[in-house]
Design a protein that fits this description.
The complex is a heterodimer of chains A (129) and B (136).
Chain A (H helix, E strand, L loop, with lengths): L3 E6 L6 H4 L3 H11 L3 E6 L17 E2 L2 E2 L6 H11 L4 E4 H6 L12 E3 L4 H5 L4 E4 L1
Parallel strand pairs in A: 1-2, 1-7, 2-5, 5-6
Antiparallel strand pairs in A: 3-4
Chain B lengths: L4 E6 L8 H14 L3 E6 L23 H4 L4 H14 L4 E6 H7 L8 E4 L1 H10 L2 E5 L3
Parallel strand pairs in B: 1-2, 1-5, 2-3, 3-4
Helix pairs in contact in B: 1-3
The chains are: A alpha/beta (129), B alpha/beta (136).
């Protein structure tokens, strides 16, 4: 039986253009596929991953063009809908950035900073990324 | 626009930060304008032109190698050299020799070369401007 793991993702947009995804969300999706039992909490700048409709144009260098630029909102939806990984977003971090709940993709859940430590007790492993 | 000589010092390794994406956007703009470009690839950036980089499929994305079309910085370096040449500029891309030895990345994209900090000094002395994009 896989250990229930809570993953707090705080580092955001690090090398997403080169990797075409977030390396931690990618890792968790792969581990979930290998039998893991993961939950994600987006906090700090990473709450922006749940904002719907985002996406960067691909990088172009001369005749070389990136065709599969990252879309973080799509990847969050994939975690929730396809990987069955619950994704929480810290409410205060949304508010500090002026992000409304209606701006987010469907399926994410909301959590206050105060409630986060309470959530720790439900998991065998807590990882802070 | 007057012709300029611009020097860039890069430090970040591939696949670790957004700094290199920013750097390549600036380098591309300079190459499109035909400026001469010097690059000193220092520390982790000395792996940017490593020729054994290879794109990969992405099972999490459900894509094969062609569909994923994963970026490699060696291709971006080669494209930069070609774009500069097309527009009448030239690129002198120097890979820090000790840095590539440390990392075992001593096989470069053709048109780039091995060098030392002395090259960065010469570049800066001879350039209209120098931009350092360091690792933080």
């Amino acid at each position: 039986m896989a250990k229930k793991t809570l993953n707090i993702v705080e580092s955001a947009y690090r090398a997403v253009m080169e990797e075409q995804d977030d390396t931690i969300l990618w890792l968790l999706a792969a581990m979930q596929g290998a039998g893991g039992a993961h939950t994600v909490v987006l906090r700090g700048n990473a709450v922006n991953y749940a904002v719907a409709g985002q996406g960067a144009p691909g990088l172009t260098v001369g005749q070389w063009k990136q065709t599969q630029a990252p879309k973080m909102d799509r990847d969050v939806v994939d975690l929730v809908a396809n990987r069955k990984i619950p994704v929480f977003v810290i409410e205060e971090d949304l508010a500090e950035r002026g992000i409304e709940r209606r701006d987010l993709v469907a399926g994410v859940e909301f959590l206050s900073r105060r409630a986060l430590p309470v959530l720790f007790a439900e998991y065998e492993v807590v990882s802070h990324w | 626009m007057p012709h300029k000589t611009l020097t860039f010092a890069l430090m970040d390794p591939p696949y670790e930060s957004a700094n290199l994406t920013t750097a390549f956007r600036i380098l591309d703009a300079a190459a499109r304008r035909g400026h001469d470009i010097n690059v000193f690839a220092y520390e982790g950036a000395s792996a940017l032109a490593f020729t054994r980089q290879a794109p990969h499929p992405n099972p999490v994305h459900g894509k094969n190698v062609a569909e994923e079309n994963h970026p490699t910085t060696k291709d971006q370096v080669a494209a930069l050299l070609a774009e500069a040449a097309k527009n009448g500029g030239k690129v002198d891309w120097v890979n820090c020799g000790m840095c590539v030895d440390e990392r075992g990345v001593n096989e470069f994209v053709p048109g780039t070369r091995r060098g030392s900090p002395a090259d960065l000094q010469k570049f800066a002395d001879a350039s209209d401007n120098t931009l350092v994009i360091p690792t933080k």
